[in-house]
Structures are given as structure tokens and as C-alpha cells.
Amino acid sequence: MQVLSNIFYSFPFQLVLLHLRKYLFMLVPWLLLIMIVTGNLMAKLGFHYLFLDPEYFGKVNFISFFLIGIALGGFIFVWNITSYILNSFRFPFLATFEQPFLRYSLNNGFFPMLFMLIYLYALIQFQYYSELKSFYEVLIYQVALLSGVALMLIVSLLQSLNIQVERFMQLTAGRKELRRKKVEQNFAIKDKTSGTFSSELRVDYVLIHPFRVRPVRSAEHYPVAELQKVFRLHHKNALIIELVALVMILMLGFLMEIPFFQIPAASSILLLLSLLLAPIGALSYWLRSWAVSAVIGLFILANFLVKFDFINHRNKAYGMDYGHPAAYNLTSIESAVTAQTMEDDNQAGLQMLENWKQKVAGYYHPLQKPPLVILNASGGGVKAALWAFRLMQVADSATENHFFDHCVLISGASAGMIGMAYYRELYRHKKLGDDIDLQNTHYADNISKDLLNAVSFTYVVNDLLFPWHYFRVNGFVYKKDRGYMFEKRLNQNTGFIMDHSLADYAPFEKGGSIPIMIFSPTIIEDGRRLIISSTPLSYLTEPFQRRTGSNELKVDGIEIHSFFKDQKGASLPFITALRMNSTFPYILPNVYLPTDPTVQAMDAGLRDNYGFEPAFRFINQYKDWINKNTSRVIIVQSRGDYEKNYEPIVDQHPSMMKKLLDPINSLYAIWSDFQDYHQDELVGLTENWLSVDLNILSFEYVPERKDQIASMSLHLTAREKQSILNTINNKTNRGKLNFLVALLSQ
User: Fold this and answer.
1) 326-644+652-745: what CATH class?
2) Are the C-beta atoms of 49 and 41 separated by less than 8 Å?
3) 664: helix, strand or coil
4) Which DSSP string do the residues of 89-122 spell out, in sequence order?
5) Which residue of 33, 71, 408, 537 sits 20 to 30 Å from the alpha carbon of 423, by its own alpha carbon?
6) Which residue ranges make up each domain of the chain?
7) How far is Cα 579 from Cα 602, in angstroms, rounded to an integer?
8) What is the pLDDT of residues 373-421, one digit of tens each?
9) End-to-end CA distance of the chain
């Protein structure tokens, strides 16, 4: 029992209890970090990759983990400083140590050590299993991480944080004066200390070194005033050091485009946690019981200030003119497209189809009609981009490079469209005579390169504070943020091959040499679709029956060429259109459009994750031509998010919390199913319009083991890439591929 009592009244154990009892907010960062590295928080978005597979200069190596270690050591240091500021007054004996802050940090090491053990275990498991690394490589990563932590924790030895009371007294007064003060105050020290230092915690033993324990010595023989001065000096120096974290964040934001300063995103996150923790600790120390009220007041103030442009940054569609916004109301929406505009766009589409027909005529007998192929691509992070791109490679390879020639239209959402766009661009360059092998694995590597680190880094060091860097597109000025950095990194990954405007592709689409690409981000204020394409497609903005029937039907889309003609919609960079179509909430910023009042566009997947609705309207628009000039319509879907048919997942014994959240969670969990049900209805309608066969082939990324499915992240592991590339060869997808070959050869 005495051993248990000694443990209970030891300094480390009492500090653990103190944090659990009074300062739970100090434990929130550790909980978040543990949940992230173990894949229990935002794993679908790949946040654990930031810590388990950090990149620096595009590589995962000793340096990248060393930088993570430095940032983690810095966070541990700031966490200990904040805890020291909050709690040191409870333990006056600390001032008697030669190195008080170092001793405090050692005794306060339970939570940092717990996280380190969990982190190292998760790191070993991830690098062995997911990244297929060797024992030596994993060992090097661990050494790098621990070296960085150790290097940063050396700061704990700073003299400014380790002033011993006797040394301080010697520096501030003569020895005789000190003895006099001791004698005069020894009798009253208990009363004075009780008003200055907390006596609620009993501490009998303290760690001096990791393996040495000693009883706590009384500090009653020291003058209270001198103890107070020592702690105040410690607090002052600690707060100064905490400001260093803020300065580092600001400096990194200023230098964010220089590769040398683009530290791994996990390092930036740890710096951000340090930055957030410091002021919260300071408020708790200074305001005590008023701290919670102060935090609420600051939140209300910040909520009010973001209404003003000087503090509220709005991401914009680059290349467009925001100086003369278009009116966004029902009248302007309904009047933006005239009957003449629709007829002009319709005739341009008919000419494109005739040009396409001439392009593929050489594959068939003069009396034989060609099949028409439409592509749909789903969202789902970089895995969807790689899956869509690989599907195009395999389909072209299986058909002797005839498949993509037959493609007329590409529509879809998010990253799947990025993979399709990259393949289309390579195809265009090959047709122009460039030496490009579409089957080269180098291109698949390019489209699957990391995008998460750059976006996360910019979010932390730039967007969360306030973007102050500017750049120009078409003579217009915009602020740099994570949207800008996403576009820049995507351009770098793909060799800047897609660095063109929408208008640059118009002649190629109209000539039928490349498929039309339709981007359709969702306007979140009213759910309308923003139709973005190099070719004007005004007829996609409303149901066909609105023009021919008497029923009241809504205009459910706006088209960039007709609605934003005066705002230079055709000048939109192609890579910006890709981003606007891929703005997964919070990962990338919503795009504010040049309208009055201002509306926002976000990921196309909010309304249609497979791009079937635009394809459905296109088929309806040209059904007469299709029935007359083609043998069949083949819709090839690249599903990189979820399989279409799966066993229902039912929890027969839900918890109370799950019952409360089910009405909300279900909307997210089965959103893809809702879209599938709607899509199947449209398929039935389409078959009624067409006199030719309609064939829908859905190629699904479904790995052999459910626990191996890649996350919907902007980062892929080596095993995930391998899984995606291999899944095209499974029995189901091979069967559909053989059927596709047969359909194109008939």
C-alpha cells in the first residue's frame, strides 16, 4: 500500500490528475493527434498520411521525418511551457531545482510519451504494410523522427527557463540582505504562501532523472517575493518563446512558394497546434475563471469580423473579371440563354458530331455506323484520378488505340475528371504529332503524385491566418491560397501540359478531334449546376421539356459562356475549371463567382458524382442525330469511389449517440446511393428515346479485400497505387472490358 501511496503522490501522477481535472483543453491536441495517426479521424481524407508518409521535395526520407520530429519536439516544448505557466504556482518547490523547467517537463511527460509510442507503432505498421518499406528504411525513419524531437527538446535547457531561486537571489541582492529577509519571513511564510501558491496538491516524490526519484524538499525557507519573481520571469520568457511559433508560421506563409521552406504539412499542423495552444493557455493563466467567457467573446467577435472583406478571404475563379459582377436573380438566370443562343450552340454541336463521324469513319465499312462513346468519371480523391486514367489506358490498349477516338463527351466530378483531362491532353498532343506513348506508366505515376501536402501546408501557414500574396491572371489580381497551390502542384505533377484556358480547347472540341469535357460544379446557394466547357452548351441549363411543354419547369443551371460572357468566362484557366469541379468541402476552398449577390460553387459531386445528368441531356439533345448516325451508345463509367451494388450495412444495436446522429449521417453515408437510384431512372428514360442500343459499362475500383481500399485523399500509398492498378484485371472488370471490345468491333 505504501508503494501505491508513493506513486499516487508522485509529481508525474499528480500532474496527470491535474490535467484531467482542471485542464482538459490541454489534452485535446494529444487526442486529435492520436486519432489522426491511428486513422480514426479524417482517414478518408488521408490526414494520417501527413504524419505517416510526410513528403519534402516530393520525397519521403530521413529529412522529411526529421522535420516532423523537430515540429513535434517544438509542440511538446510549447505544451510543457503552457502547462508550466498554468501550474507552476501550485508547486513552489520547483524554484529550488537547478533546472526547474527541465524537471517539470520530465515529470509532465506522460501524455507526450503516450503519443510517441502510439505514433511510432502506427508508423512502423504503415511503412511496412502500406508503403512496403524494408526494416532498414523504417528504422531510419524512426531515428530521424526521434532525432528531431530530441534536438528540439534541448531548448528545455535554456537558462531563461531554468533560473534557480538561490542563484536569482544572489544576482538581485547581497548575501547579508538575503539572510535578513529569510529570518524575517520564515515565521510568516506559510500564511503568505497560502495566498500566493496553491496548497491543494500533495507531492511527496519527484523525478530528477528518468530513473532517479527523490523526496520533495520544502520551499518554505525561501522568501515568497523571490519565488514569485522567479516564476514571473519564467512565465515571461516562456511567452516570448511561444511567440516564436507565430513568427515561424508567418515566415513560412511568406515563403510558401520556395520549395526549401515547404516543410511537410504535418510539421505545419504541429506548429499550428502550438500557435493555438499558447494563447489559450495564456488566457487561462491571466483570466482564470473568466477564460471561457473570453474565448466565447473572441469567437463572437471573429464571427462578426469575417463579414468584412478586410479579414474574410474569398477564393475566386482565376481569369474572370470581378469588377463588373453579373446580377444573380431569377430574371437574369432565366433570360441569360435565348432561343437563338440555344440554336447556335445546337448547330455547333451537330457540326462537332459530323466531324467526329468523319474521324472514326476509317474504322468501318461505308455502310456501317460507328458506336458513340460517352465517359463518366466519379470523384474519390487521387485514387479516382488514377483509376480513371488507368481505365483509359487499358481500354485503348485492348482496342488497339481505337477506344478514345470514339469518345464524344466526358462528364463527371472531382478527381476522376482530373484523370480524364490528363489522358485527353496527352491524346491531343499525340494527335498533334508529339512523341507520346499513351501506355507509358510514367503518366500514371504523374497523375497519382501527392497533392495533399502542398494543400495542407498552405492551409496552415497561409489560409488560416490571412492570405497576403497576390498574383495576376489575364490582368486581374487574385490572392494566393490553397486553391492556387493545388493548381500549381497539379500543373507541376503533370508537366504543365494542361496549362491553357478554356478557349484554347474550343477549336479541337468543335473539330471533333478531342471529346467535349463538361465540368458541372454545384452552386451551393440554390443547387443549380454551373456548366463549364470550352464549347458553349447552353442547352444543358434546363430540362428539354421546358422549351417544348406547357408545364412550369425550372432553369437548373447556368452556363459560363452565356451567363458570364461579360466577366470573361471563356478566359477561365482549364486547370481552374478542374479545381472548381473538385472542391471537396474544407479541403479546397469554395469558389466565389463574379455575381451580385456573390454565390459559391463547390464540388460537382454534391449534385451528381458521376456526371450522368449532363450526359443524359446531351443524348436527349442529339437523339435524332444519334439514332440516324450511330449503331449504339456506350456509356463507360469510371467509378473510383464506391461499388454500385453492395450488401446493405445495418447496425441492429446502435448506440444512443448513433441514434441521434443517424438522420444526419445517413444523408452523407448513402448520398451515392441516392444518385444511383436517380441515374437508373434516367437510364430508363434514355432507352425510350433511343432506337439504338444503350450500353452502360461501370468499371469499379473494388479491391479484393475491403480493408485495402484506398482513401478519398489527395495522397496515395505505394500499396494503394498497386491495388488500383491491379483492380482493372479482376474478373468483373475484365469481363466488362471484353464486352467493350466486342461492342466497338461490331
Assistant:
1) alpha beta
2) no
3) helix
4) GG-GGGGGSSSHHHHHHHHT-HHHHHHHHHHHHH
5) 537
6) 2-305, 326-644+652-745
7) 9
8) 999 999 988 999 999 999 999 999 999 999 999 999 999 999 999 999 9
9) 87
